Amino acid sequence: MDMIQVDTIRVDVQIIKMLFNNLTNTHFVELHVENGKLNYLPKSVFNYPNLKRLTIKRSNIQLINKESLSNLGSLLYLDLSGNELQSLPSKVFENNKLIWYLIMKGNQISEILEDTFIGLQNLVKLDLSFNQLTNLYDDSFTQLLKLKKLDLSSNQIQNIESEISLEKDYFEHLKLLKYLDVSYNNITYLEPDVFKQNTDLEELNLSFNQINELPDGILKFNSKLKYLDLSNNKIKQFNSRIFRNLTNLEYLDLSYNQLNAIPIDLFRYLIQLNELNLSTNRLKRIESGLDPRIFYKLTQLNVLNLSEMSFGPFSFFLENETRIKELNLSSNQLKHLSSNLSAPLSNLRKFDLSHNQIVTIDKDFFKPMGETLNILNLINNTLNLTSGVFDPLTNVLELNLTLNRLTNLDSKLFQKMVSLKSLDLSYNRITFIPPNLLKLTQLYEVFLCYNRLTHLSSNIFGDDEYIRRSVVERLNIRIIAKSYGDISDRGNGSDDIHENSILEKGVLSTFSGKIETN
Q1: 136 versus 332: which is more confidently predicted?
Q2: Are 170 and 200 contacting, i.e. CB atoms less than 8 angstroms apart?
Q3: Rounded Cα distance, 48 and 54, in Å
Q4: CA-based end-to-end distance of the chain
Q5: Which among 270, 262, 311 has a CA at the least distance from the CA of 290?
Q6: 167 pLDDT higher than 90
Q7: pLDDT tens readout for residues 417-459
Q8: What is the CA radius of gyration of the chain?
Q9: What φ, ψ does residue 470 adopt, rounded to 5°?
Q10: Which helix (H) or strand (E) element contains residue 64?
Q11: Residue 342: per-residue pLDDT
Q12: Three-class DSSP labels, 334-394
């Protein structure tokens, strides 16, 4: 494809005029201007009838003449993002009937007139994100009958009245719409019929608004919806029938709201739901706020996030949840991990228990997930680890025990973790690494930084010289060792590991310079 590119710091309108006056009869089809200084686009500045793609990004454009684009009848793609446009003239696209993709993000546009988009009957994608839109007129999108993707995120959408809302007629003409993003606005209320005509809608993002409730029936006609994000609002409760027609929904995010209870039947009809995020709500106790039966019908659920819910000690609540592959229980108030909790988690691949107050773990807690679990995160607890607790985890690849105040480690703690590749023991109070602790045939990286180590013996990799050397060769430069004061206080005060400081001479020669310090 022939293309002319203007990519300079200062490009003024006169240069653009000169380019187009001289290239009127050529076959160039693409023009890219970036980081120019244009300020405005005057009447008929483009006399380039074969142009199909026009990009003028970050060029300080503040004004566009109504007829600036009138001679671009072949234009298919227009990108005016990152400029300083405050408004768009009436009927500015009237002669651009072939445009299918229009990008206006990152300007200062505060309103869309009823006739702004006249002529764009073939438009498929429209990006108006990161502007200053406060009002949308009922007929703003009337002409966009083929529109499938609309991005209105990061604006200030509101109506003229004091109550900020989306009116019911805003999107009624967008019958082919599949993707709608109105996140990061100031919406507090949604009309019950606002999405009634958008029956093809597949993705809807309403996150980061001020919505406090969803009216009954608002999603009644959106049975094709696959992705719904309602996170970071102020929703306190849901009608049990609100999701009744969303039988194709695969992703649902309700995190960062103010939910204090969830109806038992809320998710009953979400038979295709794959991922559910309920984190950071006000469900203080499982027994009162989260009935185990709410998950019963979620037969396709693979990912469940229940982090930051202020859960304290609770009994088993994921009955029959053998399908879950990723479970996040981080940032709660768990103190003990009972085997009753883990009994049904036989298909778990990733388990996040970080940022709790866990002290003890039942020896059989990890047994149900022993054959499937690959990633285990126990960061920031106060663990008292006993020998055998990790023995069932023969397929775990990554184990993170950072920030647990660990002081002593049993030499057999990891001996059954035959698949372990990454082990993080940093930010603890470890003073000694026992023999054979790292005698693991698949181990690839070990993090020991910010402990209280003064000595590392060669037998931490086992007594067999061949095994020890093979482990060291595989680890390469992945062992990181640093102490709070014991090492850095020596010699010139640097944190470099020197012979006779933290490593035995034999270990240092074995590593052959493969030690990495942090």
Answers
A1: 332
A2: no
A3: 10
A4: 50
A5: 262
A6: no
A7: 999 999 999 999 999 889 889 888 888 888 888 888 877 777 7
A8: 30
A9: -65, -40
A10: strand 63-64
A11: 73
A12: CCEECHHHHCCCCCCCEEECCCCCCCEECCCCCHHHCCCCCEEECCCCCCCCCCCCCCCCC
CB 33 within 8 A of CB 7: yes
CB 252 within 8 Å of CB 281: no
Structure tokens at 308: 């930051």
Model confidence pLDDT, tens digit, residues 359-373: 999 999 999 999 999
DSSP letter (8 states) at residue 260: S
> Which residues, in sequence order, are bridge partners of residue 227?
203, 251
**pLDDT band at 18, cuts 50/70/90?**
low
pLDDT for the residue numbered 455: 74
Task: Give, in degrees to the nearest 5, the angle at Cα 516 between 508 and 374.
Answer: 110
Question: CA 269 → CA 139, 199, 245, distances in Å?
Answer: 35, 18, 7
CB 305 within 8 A of CB 278: yes
- In degrees and rounded to multiples of 5, residue 149 shows phi and psi of -135, 125
Chain position carrying tokens 């109504």:
66
Question: pLDDT, tens digit, for every residue of 70-103?
Answer: 999 999 999 999 999 999 999 999 999 999 999 9
Neighbours of 100 (CB within 10 A): 17
Residue 156 contacts residue 184 (beta carbons within 8 Å): no
Tokens for 172? 């009624």
Instruction: Please say if the pLDDT value at position 323 is more than 60.
Output: yes
Q: How far is CA 227 from CA 173, 202, 224, 335, in A?
A: 21, 6, 9, 35
Task: Please report, for the chain, how many H helices and E strands are present, in that order.
Answer: 5, 28
For residues 225-237, one letter each, b for 16 or more C-beta atoms within 10 angstroms of the residue's C-beta and e for the rest, the string is bbbbbbbbbebeb
**SS3 state at 469:** helix
In this structure, what token pair is assigned to residue 125? Answer: 């994608």
Q: Whose CA is closest to 142, among 94, 99, 175?
A: 175
Within 10 angstroms of residue 325's Cβ, the number of other Cβ atoms is 18
Residue 7 phi/psi, 5-degree rounding, is -130, 90
- The strand pairing partners of 167, in sequence order, are none
Looking at 3.80.10.10, 3.30.365.10, 3.30.479.30, 3.40.630.30, the CATH number of the domain 1-84 comes to: 3.80.10.10
Report how far Cα 407 is from the mean position of its chain's Cα atoms: 35
Tens digit of each residue's pLDDT (9 = 90 or more) over 247-285: 999 999 999 999 988 888 999 999 999 999 999 998 765
Give dist(CA 493, CA 486) in Å, integer: 10
Strands (E), 218-284: 227-229, 251-253, 275-277
**What residue type is 501 in one-letter code?**
S
β-sheet bridge partners, residue 481: 448
